[in-house]
């Protein structure tokens, strides 16, 4: 018999931004495996549709895709409306959509590129979280907001300057929202992965010797897989983490302690 804790989000509606591939897709799958009804969103309809078909082919029926830019308030509201029409009130929100359009040092970065990173990675997260909180409060509160951050928020990382600044802002946002929304039963937490094997982070690990170099600094001896992050997201979505809020949980194989 399957342990009850494995499916303690059964029937709950979840929204995953940036859910068409990489970490977002792995999180969507992990939530579906635990019985949630999941809406994935992102900017490219064709990529989303491909992800939905892959999940359906794996046997998951309760999944929908809605194309939208999460940093657009009207688009974000539309995503929630479509999710509610399909599955009911969204109780689990995963802010995962992110970009990194510049590898330049902060002192030299093009300001338009910096603005784009902040728009997607910070403003987009706030818009989605704000929409979720408003709707959860209107239905009596209770829910979990999970924000995908990065180890780059915790340490200086040449080449990830603007990205690191944006993720540090996400962690501050998480703490503030948790303090503001605890009385409503809404928990807000961040996950800060190390280097994860995704297309998004290929520039960090795919060059010859790069992965081995990173792994040599990690006590567990490898870079992360998307499923490592997804497992933490599933924990934060579930009742197993009912007394956890305002935290940034590192999923870095111990890199941060070396």
Output the keywords.
258 residues, alpha/beta, globular
Describe the protein.
A 7-stranded parallel β-sheet has the order 3-2-1-4-5-6-7, with helices on both faces. The mean pLDDT is 94. The N and C termini lie far apart (41 Å). It has 8 helices and 7 strands; from the N terminus they run E-H-E-H-E-H-E-H-E-H-E-H-H-H-E. The protein has one domain: 3-Layer(aba) Sandwich (Rossmann fold), CATH 3.40.50.720. Strand 2 (37-42), helix 2 (45-57) and strand 3 (63-67) form a beta-alpha-beta unit. It is α/β, with parallel strands linked by helices and 258 residues long.
Tell me the count of domains. Answer: 1
Q: Name the helix and strand elements from N-terminus to C-terminus, one letter apiece.
A: EHEHEHEHEHEHHHE
* Unreliable residue stretches: none
For the largest beta-sheet, the strand count, sense and barrel status come to: 7 strands, parallel
In CATH terms, the superfamily is NAD(P)-binding Rossmann-like Domain
Calculate the terminal CA-CA distance, rounded to whole Å.
41 Å
Please identify the top-level CATH class.
Alpha Beta
- Please name the CATH topology: Rossmann fold
Mean pLDDT, to the nearest integer, reads 94
What is the tally of helical segments?
A: 8
Gyration radius (Cα, Å) is: 17 Å
The strands making up the biggest β-sheet line up spatially as: 3-2-1-4-5-6-7
Proportion of residues in β-strands: 15-25%
CATH architecture: 3-Layer(aba) Sandwich
């Amino acid at each position: 018999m399957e342990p009850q804790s494995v499916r303690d989000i059964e029937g709950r509606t979840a929204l995953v931004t940036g859910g068409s591939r990489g970490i977002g897709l792995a999180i969507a799958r992990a939530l579906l495996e635990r019985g949630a009804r999941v809406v994935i969103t992102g900017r490219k309809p064709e990529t989303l549709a491909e992800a939905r078909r892959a999940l359906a082919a794996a046997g998951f029926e309760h999944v929908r895709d809605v194309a939208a830019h999460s940093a657009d308030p009207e688009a974000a509201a539309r995503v929630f409306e479509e999710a509610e029409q399909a599955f009911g009130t969204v109780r689990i929100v995963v802010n995962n959509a992110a970009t990194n359009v510049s590898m330049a040092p902060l002192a030299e970065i093009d300001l338009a590129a910096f603005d784009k990173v902040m728009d997607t990675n910070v403003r987009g997260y706030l818009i989605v979280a704000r929409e979720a909180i408003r709707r959860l409060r209107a239905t009596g509160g209770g829910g979990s907001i999970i924000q995908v951050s990065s180890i780059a928020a915790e340490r200086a990382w040449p080449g990830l300057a603007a990205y690191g600044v944006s993720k540090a802002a996400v962690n501050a946002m998480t703490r503030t929202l948790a303090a503001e929304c605890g009385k409503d039963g809404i928990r807000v937490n961040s996950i800060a992965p190390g280097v994860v094997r995704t297309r998004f982070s290929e520039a960090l690990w795919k060059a010859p010797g790069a992965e081995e170099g990173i792994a040599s600094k990690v006590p567990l001896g490898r870079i992360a897989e998307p499923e490592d992050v997804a497992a933490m997201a599933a924990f934060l979505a579930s009742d197993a983490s009912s007394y956890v809020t305002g935290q940034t949980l590192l999923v870095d194989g111990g890199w941060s302690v070396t």
